[in-house]
UniProtKB/TrEMBL annotation:
Gene Ontology MF, one: metal ion binding
Keyword Metal-binding among UniProt keywords: yes
Domain MoaB/Mog: 212-352
Protein name: Molybdopterin molybdenumtransferase
Chain segments carrying region Disordered: 1-33
Function: Catalyzes the insertion of molybdate into adenylated molybdopterin with the concomitant release of AMP.
Protein family: Belongs to the MoeA family.
Species whose genome carries this gene: Desertihabitans brevis
Membrane-spanning intervals of the chain: none
Top-level EC class as recorded in UniProt: transferase
InterPro entries, alphabetized: MoaB/Mog-like_dom_sf, MoaB/Mog_dom, MoeA-like, MoeA_C_domain_IV, MoeA_C_domain_IV_sf, MoeA_linker/N, MoeA_linker/N_sf
Keyword line: Magnesium, Metal-binding, Molybdenum, Molybdenum cofactor biosynthesis, Transferase
EC number: 2.10.1.1
Metabolic or biological pathway, per its Swiss-Prot or TrEMBL entry: Cofactor biosynthesis; molybdopterin biosynthesis
C-alpha cells in the first residue's frame, strides 16, 4: 500500500447533547420518601434571590430593607438654638435677679426661627428669641417669657439664669459623619423622620416582591356571590395568602380563582409571569383525580413536587416557571395547610427577596396549659393561643383540633405550637416551642 496514499482517519467529533435544564438535586428523603420541613425550606431558599436594590423616595421606603449605610452630612441641630420662647442674654447679667429684685436689660430686637445674624449681643442687653431661633454670638442663656415681664423696650428679669440654660447645642443629636442607618436594616416610621431630618430624600432599598396569588379548585366560589349547590365553598385561601403576603411587605396581585382545568391553569399562570417575582397557588397538589396543578405545571417550567414530614402541609410543590424562571410555590388546598405552608416556606422566601432578617419566625418557649398530643413522624403545627403573665411567662393553650379544614380556630390562634417528629405528646406544665404569629420582627 503506497505510504502517502493512505488517507488519515478524521477524528470522530462527538457533539454532546445540551443538557436539559433541571432544578438542583432535591434534599434527601426518609424511608417514606418524605423530606424534613427544614430541608424543603432551605431548598426553596437556595433557589430564590434578593431582588436588586433601587433608589426609592424615603416615604415609599417604609418597611423596606435599606441597602446602603447612611452617613449624615450635617450636624443636628445645625446651629446653637433656643429651646424656649424668651430672651437671649448674657447669663452673668442676670445674676441675683429675683421676683422682688428684678434685673432690667435693654431689648435689642427679636430673632424668629429661620432668622440668621452674625451680630453679637452687647453685654447688658437682651434680645427676644423664639423656640428654634439661632442664639446670637455672645449670648449664653435663654430666659423664658414666664420669668420676665415680657417687655419690648426693656425687660425685667425675675430669676437668675444658669450658663447655657435652654440652649440646644449644635451637633448634640447628630454629628456630620455619624452613621444613621446600616445596610440591611428595615426602614421604620422613625427612620423616615430621621432621614428627612438629615436632608436625605431617597435611599437604596430592595423593592416589595410582586406576589401573584391564585386559588385553584372548581368547587370554589368568590366571596359575595351565591353558592349554587351545597358542595361549593368560598375561596378563602387566596384571600388569606394575599393578606399574609401583604403583611410581610409584598405587593400582592390576588388573581382569584381558576377551575380544575389544565388549559385554564396554564393560561392563568402564563398570563401572570410578566408581573410576578413569585407566584403562589393553592390546591391541586395532592393525589386526587382533579389535582391538576401537579399534572400541568411541569409543562411550563422546572418543577418539584414532594411530601414533607409535617402536618398540616404535607404535599408541596415548587417550580421555576417560564423563560425567566419565576419562582412558584404550590401549596396544598386545605386552608390550614395553606397557611402553615405560608409560614414555613413562603414567608421566608418573601423575606429573602426583600433582604429582611430574620428569615424565620423566632421560636420561643411557652408552658403547655394541658396535655398536647402529636402525630409522631411528622413535625406537627397546632394552633395555639398564647397568653403572657405579668412576669413575662408565656402559656399556651391549643385552639381547635388538628384538622386542616378548621379555619375558625386558625383565626382565633395567635401562635403555632411546634412539635418535632420525635414528639408524641407534651405533658401539661412542660415547655413547648411556639412561633408567635402576631409579633412584628
Ligand atoms: N390519597 C390522598 N389524599 C390526600 C392526601 C394524600 O396524601 N393522599 N393528602 C391530603 C392532604 S395532607 C392535603 S393537605 C390535601 C391537599 O390537597 P390539594 O392540594 O390537592 O387540595 P385540594 O384537593 O384542591 O383541596 C383540599 C381541600 O381544601 C379545600 N380548598 C381548596 N382550595 C381552597 C380555597 N381556595 N379556599 C378554601 N378551601 C379550599 C378543598 O375544597 C378541599 O376540601 O390532600 C389530602 N388528600
Ligand atoms: O398536610 Mo394536609 O396539609 O395534613 O392537611
Amino acid at each position: 500500500m503506497p505510504l502517502f496514499g493512505r488517507k488519515k482517519k478524521e477524528p470522530e467529533v462527538v457533539v454532546a447533547e445540551p443538557e436539559a435544564p433541571q432544578l438542583p438535586p432535591p434534599p434527601p428523603t426518609d424511608e417514606r420518601g418524605w423530606r424534613s420541613m427544614e430541608d424543603h425550606r432551605d431548598y426553596l431558599l437556595d433557589q430564590v434571590h434578593q431582588l436588586p436594590a433601587f433608589g426609592q423616595q424615603i416615604l415609599d421606603a417604609l418597611d423596606l430593607s435599606i441597602c446602603e449605610d447612611i452617613e449624615s452630612d450635617v450636624d443636628l441641630p445645625g446651629f446653637d438654638n433656643s429651646a424656649m420662647d424668651g430672651y437671649a442674654v448674657h447669663f452673668g447679667d442676670t445674676l441675683g435677679a429675683a421676683e422682688d429684685a428684678p434685673v432690667t436689660l435693654a431689648v435689642m430686637g427679636e430673632i424668629a426661627a429661620g432668622d440668621w445674624s452674625d451680630e453679637p449681643l452687647p453685654p447688658g442687653t437682651a434680645i427676644k428669641i423664639m423656640t428654634g431661633a439661632p442664639i446670637p454670638p455672645g449670648a449664653d442663656a435663654v430666659v423664658p417669657y414666664e420669668a420676665t415681664d415680657r417687655g419690648t423696650e426693656d425687660v425685667r428679669v425675675f430669676a437668675g439664669a444658669r450658663e447655657g440654660q435652654h440652649i440646644r447645642r449644635r451637633g448634640e443629636d447628630v454629628s456630620a459623619g455619624d452613621v444613621m442607618m446600616r445596610s440591611g436594616a428595615r426602614v421604620g416610621a422613625r427612620d423616615v423622620g430621621l432621614l428627612a431630618a438629615i436632608g436625605v430624600d431617597k435611599v437604596m432599598v430592595r423593592p416589595r416582591p410582586r406576589v401573584v396569588v391564585l386559588a385553584t379548585g372548581s368547587e370554589l366560589v368568590e366571596p359575595g356571590l351565591a353558592l349554587s349547590n351545597p358542595a361549593q365553598l368560598y375561596d378563602s385561601n387566596s384571600y388569606l395568602l394575599a393578606a399574609a403576603a401583604r403583611a410581610e411587605g409584598a405587593q400582592v396581585f390576588r388573581v382569584g380563582l381558576v377551575g380544575d382545568d389544565a388549559e385554564a391553569i396554564k393560561q392563568a399562570i402564563s398570563d401572570q409571569l410578566v408581573r410576578a417575582d413569585l407566584i403562589i397557588t393553592t390546591g391541586g397538589v395532592s393525589q386526587g383525580d382533579y389535582d391538576v396543578v401537579k399534572a400541568v405545571m411541569p409543562e411550563l417550567g422546572l418543577t418539584d413536587f414532594c411530601e414533607v414530614a409535617m402536618q398540616p402541609g404535607k404535599p408541596q410543590g415548587f417550580g421555576l416557571i417560564g423563560e425567566d424562571r419565576v419562582p412558584m410555590i404550590m401549596l396544598p388546598g386545605n386552608p390550614v395547610s395553606a397557611y402553615i405552608s405560608f409560614e414555613a416556606f413562603v414567608r421566608p422566601v418573601i423575606r429573602k427577596m426583600m433582604g429582611v432578617e430574620p428569615l424565620f419566625r423566632p421560636q420561643v418557649r411557652a408552658i403547655a396549659t394541658h396535655l398536647l398530643r402529636s402525630v409522631p413522624g411528622k413535625k406537627q403545627f397546632a394552633r395555639g393561643l398564647v397568653t403572657t403573665d405579668p412576669a413575662g411567662r408565656r402559656s399556651v393553650t391549643a385552639v381547635g383540633g388538628h384538622g386542616s379544614h378548621l379555619v375558625s380556630s386558625m383565626a382565633r390562634a395567635n401562635a403555632l405550637i411546634v412539635m418535632d417528629p420525635d414528639v408524641d405528646h407534651v405533658p401539661a406544665g412542660s415547655h413547648v416551642p411556639v412561633w408567635m404569629l402576631d409579633e412584628v420582627s
